[in-house]
Amino acid sequence: LQVHAESLPGGPPWLCEHMKPDYPTRQSIHLFYRPALKCLQSLLSHPLLAPHISFVPWKVWTSAAHVCHTYEDWLSGDRASAIQDKLPKGGTVLGVILSSDKMNISVMSGNRMVYPLLISLANITPEIHSEISMHTYLLLALLPIPKFLHKDTHIRSLPHDWIIHQALSRVLALLKTAVHVRIMMNDPVGNL
Strands, DSSP E only, in 35-187? Predict the structure, then answer.
């Protein structure tokens, strides 16, 4: 069974970077993350998600007169249609969802806190997003929560925010580039 489990395709690899804030901390700060584009490609290649991913924005009207537009999800909104209209023929828009919340990852050994950053696609139908067993969210990064040595909480909050912003900037750098460069990715059946 272990041989079969190890033959399954793995997810995107984990990377680690040391972060150096301007203020001293109790412990060194490490950012653990995975390449965002590889995470999105992993979601696009997931065989169970293939029938639930939409690539074309649409509009739903309440009548044939096109008076009242109803919004069901991101692809039925005006913004997705406006972005799609600006893309070259054959291109499609992928909406990215990021989610995070503070979490304790080690109660018994050091009381370490992080912000797990999750990533998903807005192109996946909302009904599937609510099913936990479909694994529509991938863990993209563990954003560090450093403990600074300075006693004043007001002064500690500024470098804390700086660390979070620097970590997000590093993790999302390739996504920001992809917005301007426009990259090709495989669709759920393997086509470019």
Answer: 60-61, 69-70, 96-100, 103-106, 112-121, 138-144
* H or E element at residue 17: strand 15-19
Say how many Å lie between the first and final Cα of the chain, rounded.
Answer: 33
Q: Which of 6-10, 77-81, 89-93 has the lowest mean pLDDT?
A: 6-10
**Sequence-distant contacts of 95-99: CB under 8 A, at least 24 apart:** 95/121, 95/122, 95/123, 96/36, 96/40, 96/120, 96/121, 96/122, 96/175, 97/121, 97/122, 97/137, 98/140, 99/137
Residues constituting the chain: 192
pTM: 0.82
CB 82 within 8 A of CB 95: no
Please say whether the beta carbons of 128 and 137 come within 8 A.
no
Q: Residue type at 190?
A: G
Give tens-digit pLDDT for 138-169: 999 998 877 777 777 666 677 778 888 999 99
The two three-digit tokens of residue 18, written as one number: 């040391």
Closest to 116 in 3D by CA, of 156, 160, 162, 164: 164
